[in-house]
Amino acid sequence: MKKLSLSFIVTALVCLMLNSCKKAEEVIHNTSNELADVYGTLEGKGSSRLFEPRYSANKDTIYFDIPYYYPANSDNEVDLSKIILRSTVPSDAIVTPALGIIQNVSKPFTLKITSGSGEIRSFVVVSKKVGDVSITNSNIKYQAGSSSQSVEAVIKDADILFYILPGTDVTSATLNLSINKHSSSSIANGSTINLSQNIPLTITGIDGSKKIYTLKATEPVKLDYGVGINRRLWSKSAAELGFTTNMETSFAISGNYLVTSLRTSPAKYRVFNRFTGAYVKDMALPYTVLSFQVAHDASGHLLGATYGAKSGKFIAYKWSDIDAVPVKLIDWTNNNPGAVTGDGGVGRRVNIYGDLNTNAVIMSTAGQSSVIYKWRVQNGILLNNTPEVVRYLSVTGGAASFMGYNADAQPTSADANANYFINYQFEIGLVNGVTNERIIGFANETDVFGIFHFATDYIEFNNAKYLAVQKFVKSFSYNNAVMSLFDVTENSKISLSATDPRYPTFNIYNSEEFLGANANVNGTGDICITLSPDKERMQVYMLLTNGGIIAHEFTKYTP
């Protein structure tokens, strides 16, 4: 074993003695006695912040307004003798009385925060149970014709605001309120009110506390561009409208009416109120042959057209309104101009831009071809009984040389060489009216134009240009359709993918799926756009063969 030298032992002892004589470091206590945070909760709720504090102006009094019941709409009355307060204070401060345990807060008490250095700050804690005088939500319902409409309120402090479009009659509206079950309202839920003037409304809590609100009908902000507030006008099934299986293929709008075409032979035109869907009458027709199409112009004049197979007659009549005597506009024999090699029939789809009493363009495609027939009206006079033959040069898809039976060609102005939209089974695109080549097309995606797409309509409204499209979303039967509205003002947006962040500014509206009662094997239907007489509102209607009709309204206003 090794031996330690005497010098080593002495040195070690000296070092131990020196170290043991060092003075201990002084502890510096925190002088802070701030109350960084405090809140209330109940037993079993852990650290859940159920009750938040209010502070007096000089921060020396803490108020807790504790609901009479918790949860607020239950029958579980809160007991102020069983409240837990929790706080956040500096690390070496002492809270008196101790928090974090069940305590009685029914009477005011002093809460002291003593800093580590001994400084004391006192707070008075005042708690009381309060009734709930809030309005969770509210709406009014009113009649517009035979249709019931609803407007949700926007609640801003003590104002209950209903954004009502100009011209809407709300003198007999039904008020619906959602308030706490233990509170009462000065106006009973379901009451009829006259919102042509502001109405005071008082909510009284179970503790007797009151809050006075004001019900206000206010005009929304008018937009400089595009659409804002929109609503469903009505929706009716094929059975409710008296449809015949597979026969309703098109419709048009004239004044306050909607006119459907039945592709029976002889054809039949039926008239409905366009604001309610109520049947009005049948129209007397000047022909006893097949008609697939009835269309309308910008002023609501109607154009009814017969179907003209190869070598058959294509005849079109104009009605000023549903009660007018029809006037023959076109009487042309389909002698197959343009060397149409397919079906070649004309009249399955007819589209108009402009006013037939002034200037307009009429387009109709030839079945299974790339040919579009075009007629022009100038100063109320038809310029060409024999149509101009237009050949669309950018046909794409599986049938590279022709479009399908029901291709849609929709002009976008009444000019001689107006651009137009083309819609057939393989694409939707904007076409140059001079070169007849595609300018730009919709992205070829199911999320953009469905598994199939049929009818289109075009309009300009509030400084924007809109294309309405009927999209089919279920394969094989084509009896599930969606009404879609696209803002086509900027050409660059037309090709946007559905995944592009800007896409919602292009495809601005999609309805719910509209279902047909029977299989719609031909994938037919129609879509129409029109404006209210004051041009402040735009209505879009979609007809689904075997399904019925839905009507939706868009406005220039936003809350």
CATH class of the largest domain reads Mainly Beta
Quaternary structure state of the chains depicted: single chain
Kindly state the percentage of residues in helix: under 10%
| Total individual domains | 3
| CATH architecture name of the largest domain | 6 Propeller
The value of Rg in angstroms is 37 Å
Largest sheet: 5 strands, mixed
Mean pLDDT over the residues: 90
Q: Report the portion of residues in β strands.
A: over 45%
Number of helices: 3
Strand order of the largest sheet: 2-3-8-7-5
> CATH superfamily assignment of the largest domain?
TolB, C-terminal domain
Query: Which segments are poorly predicted (pLDDT under 50) over 5 or more consecutive residues?
Result: 1-18
| Strand count | 45
Task: Explain this structure.
The structure is a single chain. By secondary structure, this protein is mostly beta strands. The protein folds into three domains: 37-130, Immunoglobulin-like; 135-219, Immunoglobulin-like (Sandwich), CATH 2.60.40; 230-558, Neuraminidase, CATH 2.120.10.30. The strands form eleven sheets. A five-stranded mixed sheet has the order 2-3-8-7-5, with no helix packed on it. Strands 11-12-17-16-14 form a five-stranded mixed sheet, with no helix packed on it. Strands 28, 29, 30, 31 and 32 form a five-stranded antiparallel sheet that branches. It is elongated and about 110 Å long. It starts with 5 loop residues before the first helix and ends with a strand.
